[in-house]
Design a protein that fits this description.
About 10% of the residues lie in helices and about 55% in strands. It is mainly β and about 170 residues long. The longest helix has 14 residues.
Length: about 170
C-alpha cells in the first residue's frame, strides 16, 4: 500500500500535525491585539485576545496511502497522528491527513487538514504545502470548547526534522 517514492514527502508533512497537536494548550504570552492602525475591512477587533504557543513533536505515527497510479499521483495521502510536548511534558494529541492535490512535473501541492484534541477543546487547521517546503503557515480555522471561534496562524519551521518547531498566534 505504501509507496517508497511518496513516503518521504508525506512523512515530512505528517510531522507537521504532531506539533499542531498542542496548539492552544499553554500560552507563552498573551495580549490584547492592537488594531488601531488597521483599515475598516479588518476582521480583528480591539478586544481580540492573542494567545502565543511554541511547541515540539513526539511519537509520530505515519502511514502512506498510494491511490491511483503506482507512484506519486493525485489523491495519494499521508495519514498521521501523535503527541505534542511543551517543556518535555505531553500536552495534547492530534491527527490529520495530507493529500496530493496537484502534480505538475516535479512540483507537488498537498492539502493538509488537522484536528487536535486538547483538554480545553479541539482546534482545527489547514493549509496548502508546495514542494515539501520546510517552513509553512497554516490557517487556524476554528475549534470547540475554549477554542470555539478560534482563528489565526500557526508558523512551522524545520518540518520533518528533529528540530521542528511551531509558533501559533491564536485569536479569540
Amino acid at each position: 500500500m505504501g509507496n517508497n517514492n511518496i513516503r518521504p514527502m508525506l512523512r515530512k508533512f505528517g510531522a507537521l500535525s504532531l506539533v499542531t497537536a498542542a496548539v492552544g494548550v499553554f500560552a507563552v504570552g498573551s495580549a490584547d491585539a492592537d488594531t488601531s492602525n488597521t483599515s475598516n475591512t479588518s476582521n480583528t477587533s480591539k478586544r481580540d485576545r492573542v494567545e502565543v504557543v511554541e511547541l515540539q513533536i513526539k511519537d509520530l505515527k505515519y502511514e502512506a496511502v498510494d491511490v491511483g497510479a503506482k507512484g506519486p499521483s493525485l489523491g495519494d495521502m499521508g495519514v498521521y497522528c501523535g503527541t505534542a510536548l511543551e517543556n518535555g511534558r505531553e500536552v495534547g494529541s492530534g491527527s490529520g491527513t495530507s493529500q496530493v492535490v496537484s502534480l505538475d512535473g516535479g512540483n507537488t501541492t498537498e492539502q493538509s487538514v488537522i484536528t487536535i484534541d486538547l483538554d480545553r477543546g479541539t482546534l482545527t487547521m489547514q493549509s496548502l504545502r508546495k514542494n515539501e517546503e520546510t517552513s509553512l503557515d497554516m490557517a487556524i480555522t476554528g475549534g470547540t470548547g475554549a477554542f470555539n471561534g478560534a482563528r489565526g496562524t500557526a508558523r512551522y519551521w524545520d518540518i520533518g526534522t528533529p528540530k521542528e518547531r511551531l509558533r501559533a498566534e491564536i485569536l479569540r
